[in-house]
């Protein structure tokens, strides 16, 4: 390898907002044939908002919002932030939380005003009106968050995330580079499908628990695919590390930057295609 070509590559990379961890990284970009895209925060903005509140017959909407909002206030998850902010906006000051437990990939549980409250995907049985509300939300691409306490589901909150304006264009660019895009998410299959359709991805792997995301990457590798993974590090740092090429969105967490081979300083997904194009071109110059 000629050091000059590498320096040109990394210099141009910095201009484009791409930081390369080491020269050996470039080599892996040549063989990559699959790009796994994390959904929340990568394909979508991850800035979610509470859009709709449905309550079960006989349940009190204000109480659903107070208890859910109080509990979610203690979580950093984008869904939680949307619920807490939306609840506070609608009902004002939220009650204090007596105990709190995060259930990764599912939601939160804890004690509020003497009730054992659960928020997220933690109820098996829903009354028919809530099941319908949940399906309605999900078929529109929104996440259905079930709220209940003392073992009974009492409401569904519809939380919406927006697809980044540039994501569909980014997927077209990745395809033009001969790469197969795959959407990976812990979210519900219906929501994942709606987002995939909006950006032009046809391979969807949904309802994957955070700790299983790296295994999904390993499974694709076992099928003989060479995998690049793009993520923001919220739940996907391990998958970024396992991938043949980890692309960490610089707008994500420190964990992502640590785990990635390339850091994409621009939050816009088109930079992933830029990174692969630039690496390939730099390699061609070296050879
Ligand atoms: P993603 O893979 O899209 O980043 P996660 O694996 O973090 O998502 O979560 C998967 C799903 O679990 C979310 O879409 C949501 O339905 C539910 N969930 C996770 N955390 C929470 C929370 N704090 N409150 C409500 N629901 C949650
Ligand atoms: Mg994410």
From TrEMBL:
It is found in: Cell membrane. Signal peptide: none annotated. Belongs to the cation transport ATPase (P-type) (TC 3.A.3) family. Type IB subfamily. This is Heavy metal translocating P-type ATPase. It comes from Streptomyces fimbriatus. The lineage of its organism: Bacteria, Bacillati, Actinomycetota, Actinomycetes, Kitasatosporales. The chain holds residues 420 to 706 of 755 of the full protein.
């Amino acid at each position: 390898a000629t050091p000059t070509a590498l320096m040109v590559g990394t210099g141009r990379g910095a201009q484009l907002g791409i930081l390369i961890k080491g020269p050996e990284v470039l080599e892996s970009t040549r063989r990559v044939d699959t790009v796994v895209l994390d959904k929340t925060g990568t394909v979508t903005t991850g800035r979610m908002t509470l859009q709709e509140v449905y309550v079960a017959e006989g349940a009190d909407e204000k109480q659903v919002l107070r208890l859910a909002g109080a509990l979610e206030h203690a979580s950093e998850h984008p869904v939680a932030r949307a619920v807490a902010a939306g609840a506070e906006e609608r009902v004002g000051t939220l009650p204090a939380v007596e105990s709190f437990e995060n259930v990764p990939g599912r939601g939160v549980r804890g004690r509020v005003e003497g009730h054992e409250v659960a928020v997220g995907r933690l109820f098996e049985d829903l009354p028919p009106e809530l099941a319908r509300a949940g399906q309605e939300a999900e078929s529109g691409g929104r996440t259905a968050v079930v709220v209940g306490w003392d073992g009974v589901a009492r409401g569904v909150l519809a939380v919406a995330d927006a697809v980044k304006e540039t994501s569909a264009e980014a997927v077209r660019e990745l395809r033009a580079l001969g790469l197969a895009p795959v959407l990976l998410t812990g979210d519900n299959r219906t929501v994942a499908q709606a987002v995939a359709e909006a950006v032009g991805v046809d391979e969807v792997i949904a309802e994957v628990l955070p700790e299983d995301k790296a295994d999904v990457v390993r499974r694709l590798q076992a099928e003989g695919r060479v995998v690049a993974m793009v993520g923001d590090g919220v739940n996907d740092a391990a998958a970024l590390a396992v991938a043949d090429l980890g692309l960490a969105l610089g707008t994500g967490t420190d964990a992502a930057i640590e785990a990635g081979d390339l850091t994409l300083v621009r939050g816009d997904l088109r930079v992933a295609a830029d990174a692969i194009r630039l690496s390939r071109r730099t390699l061609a110059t070296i050879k």
